[in-house]
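In response to a reviewer's request, we include the raw inputs and outputs for one of the modeled complexes. The two entities were modeled together in a single run.
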Amino acid sequence: MGKFEESTGFNIITNYLSEKGQKPFSFQLQAWKRFSNGYSGVVVAPTGFGKTYSIFLAVIIDFLNNPKDYPKGLKLLWISPLRSLAKDLAKAMKLVIDEVGLDWEVQVRNGDTPQKIRRQQERLMPDILLTTPETMHLLFSQKNNSRWFKSLKCVAVDEWHELLGNKRGVLTELALARLHTIASKLRVWGITATIGNLEQAAEVLIPNSTTKSTMIVAKEKKKIKVISLLPDEVGVLPWAGHIGSAMSSKIIPIILENKTTLIFTNTRGQSELWYQIILKEAPELAGLLAIHHGSIDLKLRHWIEDNISEGNLKAVICTSSLDLGVDFKPVDCIVQIGSAKGVARFMQRAGRSGHSPYETSKIYFVPTHSLELIEVAALKEAMKQQKVEAREPLVMCYDIVIQFLVTLAVGEGFTKDSAYHILKSSHAFSYLTENEFNWALNFITKGGTTLKAYEEFHKVIKDDNNIYKIKNRRLSMLHRMNVGVIVSDAMLKVKYISGGYLGMIEEYFISKLKSNSSFVLAGKVLEKLHVKDMTVYVKRSKAKKAITPSWVGGRIPLTSYLSHFLRIKLAEALSPGIRERELKFLHPLISTQNMRSHVPKDNEFLVELITTKEGYHVFMYPFEGRLVHEVIAALIAYRLSKIKPLTFTIAMNDYGFELLSDQPIPLDENNIHDLLSKNNLMDDVIGSINASEMASRKFRDIAVISGLVVQTRPGSRQNNKSLQSSSGLIFRVLEDYEPENLLLKQAYTEVFNQQLEEVRLQAAFERISKSKIVVKHSEVFTPLSFPIKVDSLRNSLSNESLDKRIERITQQTLKALFE
Amino acid sequence: MNIATKTIVRKNQELELTNQRALFWRDRNMLVLSDLHIGKTAHFRKSGIPISSEVLENDLMRLDQLIEHFNPSKLMVVGDLFHAELNQDVLRFRQWARENDKIQIILIKGNHDRQSFEFYEGLNIKVFSETLTISPFTFSHFSRHFPDDVFSITGHTHPGITIKGKGKQRIKLPCFQITEQQLVLPAFSLFTGLNHKNPPEGCIHIAFTDSRIFEV
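The model returned the following structure tokens for the whole complex.
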């Protein structure tokens, strides 16, 4: 065979593209060539530049050049984190295939695929199958499934950066590890956006050192324009929390100016709130404005997505639910309300507008309190320096080991050696010891360490040929229902009593709501009637006032990258550069902070002691995100209580935290260094928190993933009621009777890695120990402390009284300023 | 094991509530409890969820100690004595019942007690399907609308209460719920969850720990 560029396949494809007026990007050419030389690899490219073609066409070209290497059956497996992506991708692929004149079948398989199609696929797999990590494992749980993958040549993992840092990534790793044992010479290609640890991302996806692998980075860059919407005036204090009507008058002209605008909010609750605000302000947008978040009915979401594509909507208020997904052509403008919490997420959202390769993405930033404007300055700086967060791959998730082994046992069964080999060959379990593996085997065959205590335990059995299998049909069915690692909070379906499905709502929220009271979902005001079969029945409500549900878990903490730039920009804000529009705008506020207290430089750490009628406050500003602040706050409270027994109320946001006591707090310039010392850090942290309680909460996901807790599907009648138990209960039982259980150990590890963010915490104290600590006293709230105060008030006050309270505090500060 | 008690008076009768999830009615020499869920751990095990059978042993041990302490002649179970099907745990309980054949076991059927009446007779358990009145109290698994002058003792809900401390401290404890007309028993088995939603209107909560019992 001659040069790749002279090959038949290459010419057919490039001719085909040029007929359409397209020319391949150089990264695509590179990928095609490497693929034909047998490489695996990772493609790094911004959205809109034809990442899909770089792999999909590589396979087509290779096939055209070597048709004899491609037997009948599945050739390309396309794994993507999102279902909604698949449908359109399949359509696009099918179009190319038809126009090139091939007879390949392209099909989708995921949770939405009808039974009939699935059965068809099981008889004869298409040439290209688009699927999700979960569906891969479900396929593994079918009888005789290896035969489907024998002909496989390539697995493409799309949006790999979205999978890498979570347990779905581990599922993907295991799927690949198993496929390698079925299909020889399998090529694996990842497609990812820019992240901070690309090398590692490639290693996790292609851990096998015997495979030739490569990384191809597109030179093309997406241009992003960031515009912050400034309020009319900057007050003496940054107003915090809800500033809806003031800013909505600025958002509406933007909606009207552009074709289609996506408005990102950080929580589902906020999106519902903003939907109401904008509709009230601009009633003419009714019918042109939609709301999209994870709790809205899937069909309704699909309908909204279709209507965005067709350009029928002016604006859609959404959450991270639209972070990914199909590229919507008409979208030419993005609005971000409140902090995006991270550089990567912000860039990704911006990239959802202006899709064709050389268009500029446009994103407006709407602060929810004015200090957030510093974040815009920080984001711009980070983007200039191309600093994007890393996504740390997870390792040693024993819950997934359990689930995977049971999946294999339900499917074809496994031998001890083969299963161990598959696990060890993945990045996530490369350090799995034989002891740990044996523990897992024991757990699924005998239940636990002591045989006697687990009479009648029934799950996986070893048959006469030493094959581990599940033979009981009911157990197989139970397991298939639980495959996957996305554990949702207990959710209920919301349905009109007259029929028609609206979406999902957390059981916790609904259980606190009395019958006949009103709440908001999908932009509609609804009255709760009754709850039955995991379904809330509602009717339209005429109530003017309704509660917006606060879905748990919407609050993502600030990433450490962003907080690094935030500290720098805050220090610069006292003398802003000529181009720093946001910092210039904030200048009066920062001056107030400087006058009343202090603006910390990058190498300083600010502590404010504020005494008000309410009591004695300590504010500290580590800028490390709310999770880390929760830990530091508890730690400082613990160290203070050793000096003097005190009780504190704790509040925090992404910038800092507050300790409030009704008695004077024994903290001053002399002991502050001890209080913030990095010595005995983790010991004190463990002393200050209830680790067992936190681990018990972390155990929830682990219990579901490992099959210890049976999840009930919302709206499902088959609810396995007699197997219902809470993960907390199982956690307690295991702690009492099986303290050596590795799933418990995992829960504690997850607390340290994810909840306490041990690494970040250590780094923060390292930094603080090198900083100059500045202690300031004040009689009124300072601009930095104010948003934290308001956040803590919000939990205890209604919206109206909150507004009044904010007004009063602002007046007090004003007065103090002019005294 | 430590048995702490707190006595309340209803209908001129003293009821001794214990921190071991049961109450003793001294006048009738009767130990009253609810929601044992015998067979639950085995049911879980059979479904591939490994819950140690020591959980049941522990429940039975507590029951033994209560019996030793109060020396009752009757054991009243206000429903959900059994959790599901006949399994090893149930057989274990049958053995326990034979060893304690001097005690008359009375069961008001709960929603989980789906065994046939013959089965209970084999165990020497007196079974009532809805309610039983032993003056001045009426025993029932579920809360029902009784006439105003009835005081009912019920189970089923596994009552619990969240106690909030200063800061963000909170702790969930099992409890008795008591109103003018009703007493709701905590679930006896330790392998049961707590339900702190929708307590009866105007009830007081008597919560307990391993060492204490107290009104919240």
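As requested, we also summarize the result in words. Chain B touches chain A through 26 residues (CB under 8 Å). The longest helix of chain B spans residues 54-70.
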